[in-house]
TrEMBL record:
The lineage of its organism: Bacteria, Bacillati, Actinomycetota, Actinomycetes, Pseudonocardiales. Belongs to the ATP-dependent AMP-binding enzyme family. This is Acyl-CoA synthetase. Residues 10-346 form the AMP-dependent synthetase/ligase domain. Residues 399-473 form the AMP-binding enzyme C-terminal domain. GO terms for biological process: fatty acid metabolic process. Transmembrane segments: none annotated. GO terms for molecular function: medium-chain fatty acid-CoA ligase activity.
């Protein structure tokens, strides 16, 4: 018989499992509530269910109930637009939608049979664990290059990734995690809710992020925090001026940042104020987690660490040849393989075949990176939007963004390339200034001094804010001249 995905639900330790605001469930209560929902879903036998994934305890119970029942669940972003929602509902064809009681659903979901998620239930035997290869979640991509694709994640991938993070982060049942991430994607849902539950630990979800809220939890029982760079940017801006906040974040066993690169400048400000070195990791919807800085390893700001246990990673050049050198300079596309991988894109065999190499089962991530002699990976950006070919050089946008953020007149920065008749592409810097905008030449000279002249921006454009998605990633395709 397969190992349970959540052994603590059977063991029922006498401790809190989930807390969202003032609402909490212990392991015994959670086993009863999610187990009751699971038995009801098994009796109804839907092919798959949609979950209106608000940042609530009800969403966590809904996902857990579906996983216990062995019914594939489709978490839906509650801020999603009508067109994308229509595509997801049509593509995934859920038989049922699970939602928090009283919440109003958009038309595409309101047309489906609905089951409100209750926080009461009867003790009972949990359903038998499904096969490890059975679909667990179908998580839709952001759809930046076309309609969103449904990534089919098997139970095996979830268990493998969470157990590899147990090893890398020395994650135990004693850890209490605080975060305020959305629950429709890998970071907040799989790592931030299912991760602690698999370990037998606890979750404290803030609902909405605030530096003070996270600090309050870390000053109490919380030992770990997960966040995205926009959150850590706010932390970096406040801990230097507030000793109480700095002390609270300094108490954390582990501060983890993901979903986008954390600027080195923010790393340095947090470390200076708290003594903490933020840990970065790298993953994708299709692969879950691939690499991380280890809790017991060297912290190298700006890197995403080394491959996790069970994950194979290589860099390849434009011809597909494997890059053998580890010199921190040679840029290649990341390819990975391992038990953390997705099964397929739902209803898209063409797209599934397209992202794997012809031989060997390597997944082409589209992310560009370098690798140093110690095996630490440094992401320089997406192949489609962050690799700039200018004057015969291949330049990663990420290192220029980090350099720009070291200028005192820069609050936020994004770097793109645009066609240039002489250079092929010219480097464009999109800047949210901190106070009076600096001169364009001043910023160009600043980058040339820190990096090299061919990496200086040729064009600087000032904005009031950078366009970002719900996970804090800059949407560079929205940056138009």
């Amino acid at each position: 018989m397969a190992e349970p995905l959540f052994p603590a639900l059977a063991a029922k330790p006498d401790k809190n499992a989930l807390r969202f605001g003032e609402i909490s469930l212990g392991y015994g209560e959670l086993a009863a509530v999610a187990g009751t929902l699971a038995r009801e879903l098994r009796a109804a036998a839907p092919v798959r269910v949609a979950i209106w994934a608000t940042p609530t305890i009800h969403t966590s119970v809904a996902v857990l109930g579906a996983l216990l029942a062995g019914v594939p669940a489709v978490p839906v972003n509650p801020k999603i637009g009508e067109r994308e929602l229509g595509h997801i509902v049509s593509d995934s064809a859920p038989a049922l939608v699970l939602a928090e009681p009283g919440v109003t659903l958009p038309e595409a979901l309101a047309a489906l049979p609905r089951k409100d998620v209750q926080l009461t239930g009867a003790p009972g035997e949990l359903p038998a664990e499904p096969d490890p290869e059975a679909p667990a979640l179908i998580v839709y991509t952001s759809g930046t290059t076309g309609p969103p694709k449904g990534v089919v994640l098997p139970r095996r991938a979830i268990a493998t990734t969470l157990d590899a993070l147990e090893d890398a982060w020395q994650w135990t049942a004693d850890d209490v995690l605080v975060h305020a991430l959305p629950l429709f994607h890998v970071h907040g849902l799989i790592l931030g809710v299912l991760g602690p539950l698999r370990r037998g630990g606890s979750v404290r979800h803030l609902g909405r992020f605030s530096v003070e809220g996270a600090a309050h939890e870390l000053a109490g029982e919380a030992t770990m925090m997960f966040g995205v760079p926009t959150m850590y940017h706010r932390i970096a801006g406040e801990v230097g001026e507030n000793p109480e906040l700095a002390k609270a974040f300094g108490r954390a066993r582990l501060l983890v940042s993901g979903s986008a690169a954390l600027p080195v400048h923010d790393h340095e400000r947090i470390t200076a104020a708290t003594g903490q070195c933020v840990v970065e990791r790298y993953g994708m919807t299709e692969t879950l987690m691939n690499t991380s800085v280890r809790a017991d390893g060297e912290r190298k700001p700006g890197t995403v660490g080394v491959p996790l246990r069970g994950v194979e990673l290589r860099l390849v050049d434009e011809s597909g040849a494997v890059i053998a050198t580890s010199d921190s300079e040679t840029v290649g596309e990341i390819q990975v393989r391992g038990p953390n991988m997705f099964t397929e894109y739902l209803n898209r065999p063409d797209a599934t075949a397209d992202v794997f190499t012809a031989g060997g089962g390597w997944f082409r991530t589209g992310d560009m990176a370098t690798r140093d002699a110690d095996g630490y990976v440094r992401i320089v950006g997406r192949k489609a939007t962050d690799l700039i070919k200018s004057g015969g050089y291949k330049i990663g946008a990420g290192e220029i963004e980090n350099a720009l953020l070291e200028h005192p007149g820069v609050a936020e920065a994004a770097v793109t390339g645009e066609p240039d008749p002489d250079l092929g592409e010219r480097i464009v810097a999109w800047i949210v200034p901190s106070g009076q905008p600096p001169a364009e030449r001043e910023l160009a000279d600043h980058v040339a001094r820190l990096l090299s002249p061919h990496k200086r921006p040729r064009v600087v454009r000032f904005l009031e804010a950078l366009p970002r998605n719900d996970m804090g990633k800059v949407m560079k395709r929205a940056l138009e001249p």
